[in-house]
Each structure stands twice: as C-alpha cells, then as structure tokens.
C-alpha cells in the first residue's frame, strides 16, 4: 500500500485506494469539551501518522443554539492544543443548498421520496406501535407512491432505506458490527421547510471534503448505519465510496459514571485559564485516555505521531482522573522552558511582574508546582511589597526569640560581600553552629520574614532572588518588630 493511502471495501465489493483524510466536526453550541478535544486529537494523529489531511467542520445547522463565541472558543482551544485544521474550516450551514441538491438527486433516482404524512398520522403510527409493544418503524404510504399523485401540500423528503439484508461495518475500534436493514427506518433528509437534517448534511459534507476515515465517539455508531443508507444510494448514482469508521468509547468519570462537571468535564479553555494546565500535558493526557503504547506514560507529540494507531484504542470507556492530569502537568512544568513559564506566570501576575526575575526564579519555583496557579503562588513573594502579609503559620514563627535571631542573621548577612547561595549558606551554617542550633531554627523564621509563608524555594535561593537590599530590608523589618506584629 502506498504511504498515505488506505484500502477499503466499497459497497460494490471492490477495493479503492485514497489518501487519508480525517475530520473533526463539532457543533458550536458550547465550549470545546474534553471528549471533543480527544476526538480532534485522534483524528489529527491518524492523519499525521498516515501522511494525510486533518480537516475541521463546524456543524452550525442548529441556528438557535450555534453562537459565534462558541465557534471562537472551539478554534481557540484547538489552536492551543496544536490541533488546527490543515485547511480553512468548513461551515455546514453555508452548504445547505448542496445538501438539498443531493436529496433531490436521490428522489430523482428513486432512492428517496416525498412524504406527506401529517404529525397526527405519525403520532397515530407511534401509538399503535406502542400498543403492540413493538419498535416504531415508519411504513409511509408515500414510499412507493406515483410522483404524479403528489398533492400540493407540505412534505418532508425521506430516504428509501433498504428493507432486506443487513449492513456490516468493519469498525477500527469496535470490530465487525452488523445491523439488519429492517431496523433502519425511512428517516428524514429534508424537513418540510426545505432545510437538511444532520444525517444528510454530515454524509454530503464528508463526501465533498474527501473524508476517508470517520473517527468519532461511539454514541454515533447507530448513526453510521443510517448514514450508510445515503452513501450506498449515492454510490449507485455517482459512485460515492463509504468511509472507514472508528467509533471511540466515551470518557467516564473516575467513578465510572457519565462524565460531568464534578469529574472535570469543563471546557478546554478552563483547563488552561482556571486550572493552569500546559497544552502539552493535556495533549499527552488525552492521548492516554483510551489509547496506549505499552507502559509508556510520558509521550511527546512526535512520538505519538509515530506510534498512534486506531487498533490500539480500547473498546471500554476510559476514566478521566483530574489528579493524574495534574501530576502529568507537573512533569511538563519541570521540563518546560524557563522563559516560556516566566511569560505565562507574568501574564497572571500582571504587567508589574519582572519577567527577567521570573525567568531566573523558574528553576527553583517550577520543581515545586504542578500547575501555573501554584507557580504563581510560589512566585508571589518576589513581588510582595512591605509590609508583608503573613500566613497564620508564618506569623506564629516570629516570636521574640526568633526576632532576636533575625537581628543577628541580618548583621551577619549584611557583612557578606558575595551575595550568592554558597557563601550565604556558609554564613548561616556557621551561625547555627555557633549558637548550638539546628539550621532549621534559623531558616524557619528567616523564611517567614522573607516570604510571609512557611513554604518556599530553598532559603538561600530566596535570598539570591530577592537580592541583597530587599532581603536585608525584609529581615530588618521583622527583627525590629514587636511580638505579635508584622511590618
């Protein structure tokens, strides 16, 4: 097989070879959720793995619920994850005339028909099926009506779904799935106002975009059999080929229940803006939700492209675990470029934050943080203004005895000419030995005086980052304060 091509079974039983084209087709009725982001990722990876194309389509036919802010949020989230489409996005609503054109071709060729059944008639058919305790399958009297007898009345266009035999899908994830054709009803292609249904629009757009692989959630598996009824009909008319399907199990919460906001089902933008997650961490985490490569957990983008295959996607729902995502994010924080992290933290701290200082601080700050929010909290002492605000625990360390020690520390440090970590450490260790104390007895109140907290980077790193003048000023302020007060 040539690189970038696939061989697939077509309705006629012949083999066709086409370049790989995948697509991600969200509805812009809300944010880009975590399941949608994973679907986009799998489509992007499969296209990259096979040297093909990955396309975007905005399915905005629901005009009442589709919004521009939602569209912007989807594009923004995809771009942040590095999953931009290879071509400008297609907007489904703008193609309504093309969808209707295909529906009328199906009517002309005898594969679809005008149905004039009223809502009351449809309700009566449903009620009868319920009475007889059988599934509702529409048997429209207009299916085989002579077009010459069509009345001048509102109608919908329905597909003539096959009544006999079965339809088989060799799904990349689910394996072979078979449905008896008698279970597929004559579903609507065009509504009575002439607008296309989702089922028709998806099939036409996939064909016109050259999509070879439809990779999506397994909640669409039943739709695939209905969509194949259209594809097979257009195959008979114009030789349309069926795509290869891969229906991915949905994501559940850590407790196995349907994913909800309490599990972390929030927009991709919230992972970035609210939770402080890096895009490479979310990319890696989504990759491992339902797909794996041995015991590998840390997988770079380039490695993912090389390894990814739909046959390695599991058939069972994956479980979203926010704690695992945060731990993974901690890894990517530690290996991230310091200047980049400084810029991200600087954005959160505001214009007054010294980016150069942040960059110098990153090697000691990032090892303690699992997200950008913790990094911001860790960096806050660098830009705190005197008088410092003290945590309750930090204030409790600043006893009269501790303040006396701070006064001595101040004098010893002030006499040190080399304001770097090793000499400062030597000064404090010598003082601790001189006073018969453990180093912690000096370092704990010193940390409180310098940062207002009981946790921070190493105390000597703190002194270096704050600089000589600011460090001595903060120590002096607490050395001269009375017990129970901070200045």
UniProtKB/TrEMBL annotation:
Residues 341-477 form the Aminoacyl-tRNA synthetase class I anticodon-binding domain. Residues 20-326 form the Glutamyl/glutaminyl-tRNA synthetase class Ib catalytic domain. It comes from the Bacteria. GO terms for cellular component: cytosol. Transmembrane segments: none annotated. Its EC number is 6.1.1.17. It is an enzyme of class 6 (ligase). Keywords: Aminoacyl-tRNA synthetase, ATP-binding, Cytoplasm, Ligase, Nucleotide-binding, Protein biosynthesis. It holds the Pfam family Anticodon_2. GO terms for molecular function: ATP binding; glutamate-tRNA ligase activity; tRNA binding; zinc ion binding. Residues 1-21 are annotated as: Disordered. A motif ('KMSKS' region) lies at residues 258-262. One of its GO terms (biological process) is glutamyl-tRNA aminoacylation. Residues 1-11 have a biased composition (Polar residues). It catalyses: tRNA(Glu) + L-glutamate + ATP = L-glutamyl-tRNA(Glu) + AMP + diphosphate. Gene3D superfamilies: 1.10.10.350, HUPs. ATP binds at residue 261. It is found in: Cytoplasm. Catalyzes the attachment of glutamate to tRNA(Glu) in a two-step reaction: glutamate is first activated by ATP to form Glu-AMP and then transferred to the acceptor end of tRNA(Glu). This is Glutamate--tRNA ligase.
